[in-house]
Structures are given as structure tokens and as C-alpha cells.
Amino acid sequence: MNKNAHINVSVEEKTKEEVDEILDSLGINMSTAIDLYLNQIRLKKGIPFEVKIPKNNIHNKTKDLAEALNLTGGKTFPKKFNKIISLYARGDIDYDVAIYAIKKEYSNV
């Protein structure tokens, strides 16, 4: 296949240097790596890896949920709530799911 299309991109120099080293150890050059990436996009009909906004700081998320728990009137909560808080803090469940699970557990206590 004749390669005659050109892509001109700007990247951070340090990133390029680090990637060049990695690609060199793999035995491929930047052009081949980009060609592989573009072909994966074509085959997958999208970016070939998950692209999402980074999770919030775990400490802040834990604090948010703890504040929500305090709205229950300062009652002590069962230790099983720690699992819900942990799942939320890691971003495995969202805030609404965490609150729902807590309310459900409170009704079972």
C-alpha cells in the first residue's frame, strides 16, 4: 500500500522522546506506531481504549459521602457502609447509587 498522506502534529518534546525510546525497544518507529493506532481506530470504529475524565480525588469523594451520611442526624452507621463509601471513592459507583445503597441499608437496619 502506498503511503502518501501526511499528518503533522505537535507534541511535548519530553513525551516524544520517551515514546521514541519505548517504540525503539519494540522495534518500530513513530510512523508505524501512528499507522497502527489509526488502523485500530478504523477497525474499532472509535478510540481503541477508554477515554474518560479522571476520577475525582478519593479523599474529596469520601468526604462528600461522609457529609451526606451526617445528614442522617449524626447516627452511627453500620460498618457495611464503609464498603459503599469505598466503592464510591474509587469511582466504581456514582454518588446517586451510593446514596441509594445507603438509604436501602438504613431501611434494613
Quantity of strands, as a count: 0
Name of the CATH first level of the largest domain: Mainly Alpha
Strand percentage lies at under 5%
Number of helices: 5
What is Rg? Answer: 23 Å
Specify the CATH architecture of the largest domain.
Orthogonal Bundle
Instruction: Please tell me what the overall shape is.
Output: elongated
The helix fraction, in percent, is 55-70%
Unreliable stretches (pLDDT < 50, length at least 5) are none
How do the helices and strands follow one another from N- to C-terminus? HHHHH
InterPro entries: Arc_rbn_hlx_hlx (IPR013321), RelB/DinJ (IPR007337)
Protein name: Type II toxin-antitoxin system RelB/DinJ family antitoxin
Organism: Mariniplasma anaerobium
Write the layout of secondary structure elements.
Elements: H1 13-26, H2 30-44, H3 58-70, H4 80-90, H5 95-108
Description:
With 109 residues, this protein is mainly alpha-helical. The chain has two domains: 1-51, Arc Repressor Mutant (Orthogonal Bundle); 58-108. The chain is built from five helices and no strands. The protein has helices at 13-26, 30-44, 58-70, 80-90, 95-108. Helix 3 (58-70) packs across helix 4 and helix 4 packs antiparallel against helix 5.
What's a quick, concise take on this entry?
This is Type II toxin-antitoxin system RelB/DinJ family antitoxin. With 109 residues, the chain is mainly α. The chain has five helices and no strands.
